[in-house]
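Figure S4 source data
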Amino acid sequence: MADSSKSAHAPLRVAVVGLGAIGTKVVEALDRGIEGLTLSAVSAQNPDKHRAWLAGLISKPAVLPIEALAGAADIVIECAPSKLLRPIVAPFVRSGKTAVVLSAGALLDNEDLIELAKQNGGQIVVPTGALIGLDAVTAAAVGNIHSVRMVTRKPINGLAGAPYIVENNIDIAGITEPLKIFEGTAREAAKGFPANLNVAVALSLAGIGPDQTRLEIWADPTVTRNVHRIEVESDSARFSMAIENIPSENPRTGRITALSVIAYLRKQRASLRVGT
């Protein structure tokens, strides 16, 4: 008979997909050590590019294709292009395991994955990422939220090449003052700015949904950080939040995003958990 007490305290095996600005920071944190967790595998589109860096890790994780990860880990951290969301997440939640999703916008096109997780005892986690206050929004959603509005301001290079900008022939390269380039729902923003607005989708999923959450996006040559302001009206509280995120090596992603994933991982076996 298996020793249940031993299995309950066995380290959780973590796999990381994508070794860009976020993935590398998460891997390094796991490699340094997070209580109750072990780095078991990584996956990247071009493993040879990262071979020397991976060789310098203490843990020496297996380098595996995406389809082999579910057999090698209990938790997968998705830090990959949004088009890979489904092949990364589906095997884990189908096996009753956990998938941590950073490409939250892609969830709106793959909402059946949530039902798949429910049917099999799996879990999809959207970490706080670059947005403060999701705990407050989640709590307010237990009651009745009347409205959620978000205004995002980003430096020019953080928005360049977004599909919405290209399709609408919006020229932001030479602007000298803030320009509102989008106003609509979080769902519409996720389609038009798939690399930029995962935070808006996370906000919508925590609150009143992607079709009720309203969003403005500004290209702003006067800022050097990704700036988000959120205003929430509910029957339990009225509150607003603002955050200025320092960009990572990838100008579309704030440094705090990787730290948010690491904070989530630290909670898994922590003796004290703060926040819902």
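Figure S5 source data
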Amino acid sequence: MPVHVRRLWLAVSLAVAAAGAAQPASAQSWPNRTVRIVVPYAPGGGVSLLAQTLGTKMQELMKQPVIVDNRPGAGGTLGAEIVAKSSADGYAFLLHTSAMSSLSSLYSKLPFDPVSDFIPVSMVVSTQFVIAGSLKTPATDLRELVAVAKEKPGALNYGSSGPGSTLHLFAELFDSIAGVNLVHIPYRSDAAMVTSLITGDTQLAFLPQANGIANVQANLIRGLGVTGTARMEALPNVPTASEQGFKGLEIGSWVGLFAPRGTPYDIVQAVQRHLAAALADPKVHDWLSSTGQLAVGNTPGEFAEQFRADVARFAKVIERSHIPKLD
């Protein structure tokens, strides 16, 4: 294991241990004022809608106002910085995607430490990716695509939503697992990436569920595989990557809740319980299902373990792929 990965692993472990240390019984009087959930993305997006939905239900459960504070900018780091520097009193939380796991390895300089400055509270939801191909490529599944890639090294391209994006990292992870070397072509948006598949400029892309499912069902692109441990209900004929012999893509993307370092652990546990109760609400559950999101709501310890694994996983991918660090 590379030295910098061991350091990240150790930092997460220390942060979790510190969070679990003896804390005053502060949850007895918490909350007694407004709780803020910072979303490092613009209003109207998927993460923001998730925060609004959960915030409304948690407000009912906690008997205190819960507001969503959208702070987009700097690739999601602006909102994270705000929470990292907030008072650790249980009134500020960060709702971020699994992109949080790669920040330490992607950025050369950050105004906060994504690992040691936060306490993982709970994984809120998880989603999987559609691994899509172009209809102009004869490959009908991942095995056939890999066979072509090995026969003609450097001849196939894959698209992403930008260097260092989650979609880029998962495609590089697939490269490593499959033992191929596809050429990366970055785009400015998911829409542009899909267009490149339709025109045949790229032959592979990892797509978010909603985008991928809709375009496969419209027969604009081909579903070569899906991540996760089970096939998607919306694409029952598209096998998982694991079914096709490509192990290591069982975990897709997630959205998780984080607290500033030093937040009393009894408050962290209380927030997780309220979050889990909100996720179990039938209306919330039905809405999540309709959008292809799987409710999780696991414990701080369970989420910390997954976060630690993802930090190490993405660090290896970034190092192997020689992805340059961002300023």
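The domain at 129-226 is CATH 3.40.190.10 (D-Maltodextrin-Binding Protein; domain 2). The mean pLDDT is 91.
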